[in-house]
Amino acid sequence: MAGIMRNLYVITLALAGSVALTACQKPFGGDVRRADTSVNAIDGTGLSDIMLNAADPTEAVSYFSRSVAENPDRIDLQRGLAKSLVRAGENHAAVTAWKNVVAHKEATMDDRVDYADALIRTGEWKEAEAQLDAVPPTHETYKRYRLEAMVADSNQEWKKADSFYQTAVGLTTRPGGVLNNWGYSKLTRGDYKEAEKLFAQAITYDPSLFTAKNNLVLARGAQGKYDLPVMEMTQTERAQLLYTLGLAAVKAGDVTIGKGLIKDAIDTHPQHFEAAVRSLRALEANVSNG
Known about the structure:
Number of helices: 17
TPR repeats: 176-209
Number of strands: 0
Mean pLDDT: 87
Protein name: Flp pilus assembly protein TadD
Strand content: under 5%
Organism: Celeribacter persicus
Largest sheet: none
Structural class: mainly alpha
Order of helices and strands: HHHHHHHHHHHHHHHHH
Keywords: Signal, TPR repeat
Low-confidence stretches: 1-39
Pfam families: TPR_16
């Protein structure tokens, strides 16, 4: 046992001496402290990926802004800044950032698609369409066709929109969001039955998608269907959906039914439902004045 301890002591001394010697020696080629703190060194820890996927969006913007300032030629950092700006909701700044990415010599077709996405977020539909037109037909991705469908919708090119939506659905294993978009397109065209079908499909793929649930209720209300469909929902969601259905009924002229649904929404909500209470008071005041 004493021999083992002695050997460990010798090894410890040897390691300590090695560290001390390394610390005393100057690295060949001069000072490398700058390299130790550079983005290249940080990238080895996957910090960029963490910033893109897990960090607070504002912190990510700050990180990539500093990194781009230090390394203006690196497209991966420019791309990270653009994506972070989108996450942070700074859409106009994101457009500028994506424009810089697309102008880079190493830009890809995916970058151009993301640029088009940023343009759509700021309502620049024509420029977004121009960017998508510059993407070759061989570049077949879910995001590309989802955006193509949205642009076609904005131009009221319904057949093209339906074709693009259908293609996008086939290119993803998680089509809930695009099915919801497609359903909303049908809703705006007045095709309520088809819209209802698409919203129901969206919820099947993603039961947590409240937007699709709300849109489904709107599509049903437009057809005079004033009952909630069977689907997964929390008590708060149920109250909000009853409220949406009540407003749809009032808009359709079925005021008595609408008032009843809004009362149900107030009773169902686990907390005080201020918006529904105000709407009910307004309806009762109108009836009294009428």
